[in-house]
Amino acid sequence: MSLSLSFLVSLWPLLISLWVLYGVSVAVYRRYFHPLSSIPGPFLNTISYLAILYQQGILEGQLLHALERWHAQYGPIIRISPNEIHLSSPEHYETIYSNALKTGFYKDPAFYGPMEGPIKTPIILTMISNEEHRVRRMGMNPFFSRRSVLGLEQIIRDKTEKLVNMAEKSLGQIGGEFDVHRATRALTVDIITEYAYARSWNYMDLADWGEGYQEAIRAVQTFFPWFQAFPSLLPVFGLLPDWVLVKLYPHFGKWFGSLEVVQQSVADVKRDIVLGIKPPRRTIFHELIDPEPAIMNVEAVKGLPLRQKLPDVVVFADAVNVTGAGVETTGATICRALYEVLDSPEISQKLREELKTALPDPFDVQEMSLVELEKLPYLTGVIKETLRVSPGVPGHLPRVVPSTGATFEGHTLPPGTVVSMSAWSMHHNTYLFPNPDKFDPTRWTNPDVDAVHARERALVSFGRGTRNCIGQNLAMCELYYSVASIIRRWDDLKVHPDFGREDVKLVEFLLSYHPRKARKLRLVGG
């Protein structure tokens, strides 16, 4: 027994040596003999996937800023992991994203697949096949079309007016301040739930503004980088009971609680359908649960694949995606717009002058249609510039090179190579956006029409193509009414003095956030 034990102990140096030799040989191959070895990039990135984990998991969402530094050092094409390159030139975006159905680029399963682990359900975001995604999304598109949003903009008007009234009440008190950070997130929750279920969650009526829901969405995303780096952890994670996960990471309690709320909302819609209770209007989930025959007949005539009633698990997954995706992104964008306007006397004066000309009565914003608001050039410039500096999904979105291969920046990429671009890099292109760190609404009101069009093609805050953000039209409507209503209502509104530019720095775990230590935006009267 002692002999065999001593023999095993004697093997350890050999095993360690073999392990080190294997690691070195893999590193040498990846750096010098891999098909992507000619593409420049940081040394550690070229030999290990852990370099991205360090930026995303350890430093918490800093990869978008690292990409900016690496492109400045190495050029428009860089290798950011052994099998992934990142591009910064806007000219490539159409090929990889906008025309993916034609060019064949598809989502990287290694990046999107692990997201389903902490979310605890498959969602439309993580679907790999572009064609399957197109069919799945077909039933949702009409409810988020511009026509549908214009037809239901009264919902946004009413909820925005409620927000403004609550701000008025808070600011009217002695030393009053308005917690616009939490309030705008509650606003976006109330709008999307009213829009999607015909039943608002009414988070604006809660003392804490329903803050737990927003915290839950962020908490679950912090796990993405770890599961992407170590996918073998996913089966273990899936086997653990929810109570164990909550014990290990208390924020999961809020996430599981939010899933129950979403599930109940879907169940309420399904119950009404079974009981024959007609809603004030059919929502997206009425259609997904019980498609109207008339609509399906139209699809058949057009030669589109016939949609069937979706299984409960699929409807629930879509509900998780629809309800959660636009809460933090739109709320954060509204806050950023208000901060940038109020932080600059010049910008706030110009915007107020435009709004006062269009709206002599500060209480008349809700009487204007979205179409009328969109005709205000400086307001539109403020909103587009906010989307540039604060995109909802700012980081890299990996796609896989199809079987035909691809060539970018003079480098031929074999099939299976992962290629990505990011809104942050696009929006900080110094040729299209000189002095990109400056907030400048006049970039979009410039009389040079060609220059403005070039910038608009590079503005990808909502993505492009068939996999763009489905809620784009709704989000834009929320932005116009929120920013116009708040800025027009008060002439002396200011940012709380303890809030600064360091608090609007972005990090990302897929959606954009601010660092954990960042202070929350509050507004005060003059």
From TrEMBL:
One of its GO terms (molecular function) is iron ion binding. It comes from the Eukaryota. Keywords: Heme, Iron, Metal-binding, Monooxygenase, Oxidoreductase. InterPro entries: Cyt_P450, Cyt_P450_CS, Cyt_P450_E_grp-I, Cyt_P450_sf, Cytochrome_P450_monoxygenase. Its cofactor is heme. It holds the Pfam family p450. The keyword Protein biosynthesis does not apply. Heme binds at C469. PANTHER family: CYTOCHROME P450 (PTHR24305), N-ACETYLTRYPTOPHAN 6-HYDROXYLASE IVOC-RELATED (PTHR24305:SF157). Belongs to the cytochrome P450 family. This is Cytochrome P450. It comes from Triangularia setosa.
